[in-house]
Amino acid sequence: MRLATRFLNAARMPITAGLLLGMTALAFGQVSPVEVLNPKLKADEARYLPQLQSLQQSIAATKFSFPFRLARYPNAKPGQRAASDSNGIEFVYFEGREVLKISGIYKAAFNARLLSKNERASRTFQDVVVPILGLVRQHIPANIDCDGIGFEIVYNARDANNAYDYEGQESLTVVFDRKDAFAYLNASGNAERQQILNRSDIFVDGKDFGLALGQRDPLNVQALERSVPRQEREPSATLPASIAPTPAVSVAPSKPASNSLPTSVDAMRLQAQFQAQLNAIVQEDGAKFHLVESAPPSFEVYGDRTVLHLTMRNTLSFQRSTTSIYKRAAQSFDLFLAPDLKGLLEKLPASPKYDALDLSVLNRLGAEKTPSETVDYICPLISIRSFVENKITSQDLIDQSIVLVNGVRIALNLQLVE
Fold first, then answer.
1. Does residue 168 share a domain with residue 218?
2. DSSP β-bridge partners for residue 58
3. What confidence tens digit (pLDDT) does each residue in 286-323 have?
4. Helical H segments across 62-95, by residue range
5. Which residues contact 253 (CB under 8 A, 6 or more apart)?
6. Distance (Å, rounded) from C-alpha 371 to C-alpha 340?
7. CA distance 104 to 73
8. Hey, which residues does 109 pair with through a beta bridge?
9. S-S: 25 plus which of 32, 42, 300, 392, CB 3.0-4.6 Å?
């Protein structure tokens, strides 16, 4: 996943099963129940939908020290389809626990030469997490049927001297036990609040972090006593045993069962392991496969799967006035993607730790100088292999995949729209 975020991309289904539903979900500001496949998470999304919508509206109306907006994928790069997804409130699984997760982008740029990492994270916590905790108490019942309340906030850290001016992103993740989340603001002072933080899960850029309020340096993580040691955690007792370990499949029904969900850290490890091979693909075969240099291949977490994301510039020419999004998506697959899938598959890293490709195709319409349409084909690797071995048809592959146009899911019948 983008950068080093450590969180909660578990048990998601991308956008929705149709254009109208997709537009509705984006308007909510949090995930719609129709997007969720896991039965327990789906039930909670539906059960608490009015409260979640009310919370979203209150967050949008709140004035923070710097602008803040909800974002489902706060680390998404500008221009990527995920960057436009504002569904920043949802139920997810995190290390065996069901968590109500709130994620977004805080438009602060902290000076890294003046503020330490702990000070930057602490400022973000005080500026964003604490006010939203107050809103959670107003709109969400204290006995909500989940195990925790989680936050994933991305902000900027700027480092400038006479030689250069560099700005990069940092990510703060905080996962409270449900009771602690509602008790934090009632704590008698910083000492009691610090105790709550010490037993909560806190990460900065995906690494365990001992957030220290009002201090320059963080606490020693090894000396902290977390509420439940991570290795000893069990799924929530409120979840049926058949649901808790393995959420429903969000890409294809053939995904094998697993007791662990992928995290951004898993994606980062794959990125590091195969970075040299990915660089070689871009250098040696980038022109052949029309890869976009400014968006290099990256491992990411999508729903409950780890995917390899490749961005390609379409060689086909389309006129907006004479084609529909469906026809462009169909022709882009049949005439642009499909002929190169076998060769591309031979070049990609071989690892059981990722199981799908996210193939982003950039379309330039008419006389436009830059692409204005992105078609994503999120295809299970097992289905791609069957396709290139002529075991299934192109329509079978599409049916087993997810197709999105500018971030909104569509149904695609290749023959019908050709």
1. yes
2. none
3. 999 999 888 889 998 887 788 999 999 999 988 887 88
4. none
5. none
6. 21
7. 8
8. 156
9. 32
3-state SS assignment for residue 43 = helix
Of 314, 312, 301, 299, residue with least CA distance to 269: 299
Q: Say yes or no to pLDDT of 212 above 70.
A: yes
First to last CA, the chain: 35
The pTM is what? 0.52
Which DSSP symbol is given to 286? Answer: T
d(CA 352, CA 345): 14
Q: Is 80 exposed, middle or buried (0-12, 13-18, 19+ CB in 10 A)?
A: buried
Matching residue, tokens 């029309």: 290
CB neighbours of 254 closer than 8 A, spacing ≥ 6?
380, 382, 383, 400
**Residue 112 φ then ψ, to 5°:** -70, -20
Residues 278 and 398 both lie in one domain: yes
Residues 225 and 271 in one domain: no
Number of domains in the chain: 2
Q: What is the DSSP string of 393-411?
A: -HHHHHHTSEEEETTEEE-
Q: What angle do CA 151, 231, 355 make, to 5 degrees?
A: 70
Q: Characterize the bridge pairing of strands 68-70 and 89-94.
A: unpaired
The answer to whether residue 298 is domain-embedded is: yes
Kindly state whether residues 268 and 397 are assigned to the same domain.
yes
The answer to whether residue 11 is domain-embedded is: no
Answer whether residue 181 is part of any domain.
yes
- Residue carrying structure tokens 């642009």: 336
Q: Is 113 helix (H, G, I), strand (E, B) or coil?
A: coil
Phi, psi of 18 (to 5 degrees): 180, 160
φ/ψ (deg, to 5) at 170: -125, 155
Range of the domain at 192: 19-232
Indicate whether 256 belongs to any domain.
no
Within 10 A of 291 (CB to CB), how many other CB atoms are there? Answer: 21
226/96 same-domain check: yes
Does residue 343 surpass a pLDDT of 80? yes
Please report where in the chains the tokens 């997709």 appear, as a residue: 22
